[in-house]
Amino acid sequence: MSKVKYIFVLISCIFATVQAQNCSEGFDRFEDSCYYFVRSQLGWYDADQYCTSLRPKTYTVHLASIESQNEQNWIADKIRADSNLRDRSVWIGLNNADKKEGWLWTRTYQTPDYKNWGSGQPVSSGRCSRMHYQHSYRWHNTACSGRYSSVCEYSLTAPCPKGFDRYQNSCYKVIPTTLDWFEAEQFCTYAVPDKYNVHLASIESSGEQQFIVERIRADSANRNRDFWVGGNRIDSKKNWAWVANNKRFSYTNWNSGEPSGSGQCMWLDTDYSYRWNDKDCNSNGSGFVCEVELADLN
Description:
There is one protein chain. This protein is α+β, with helices and mostly antiparallel strands. Helices cover 21% and strands 26% of the residues.
């Protein structure tokens, strides 16, 4: 490749990367999210549906999740700066539609760690929340049928699905259910609705191994259980590889003397501090670990 052509390709790649991180037209960026302010006054469900209809690029848009004081301040300042919004309350994504689950953000299905409720809020009635312009945009819950303006949000870095925990650029879920390796892999594939790139976990570093083991040990229900992961040698003519990407192992953590050849699938063995052991794929493991890469959630 000529030097000029190489430079052109490099610049194109850099431009594409920068462009991919820009917000879609009409959206404003704050940190790693993009926001759209809707002046039309709608009920909460219609407002969230309107957000979803915007669908910039391939991202999913919902009513905003406010997860820090800085984010709260930024949104409030944007509202105050708009003469068509400053005297209006604005819907956000926090709702209590399912009382058993409590208050959740509709965009991430997470309970709020940061809260900015107004005095005496939330009250017993009203399952949807708004930023109240008469109370310094602190949150007030009210009937979802009320008609207010709204703020929509999508993330440039997708959050983990509900029940998954993040490590670096992937999300993981430890599932203490008795299945064979093939059933566990199929279960993972359907673990996130509308996403089919979830697989049994690929462990490609000591840090990732340690993270998964810590997640297993964090729940007493997982004790004395072996956990399937994605390592396999189902094609005996090939080397061990990960089911998610068919990559050969670059990092290993086999127990001493393993793999012994007794099986073509791999689990984390509780008897050996969760070091790796090869097992018959049709054996019933007592748990498994699913993984999805953040890039596959957009």
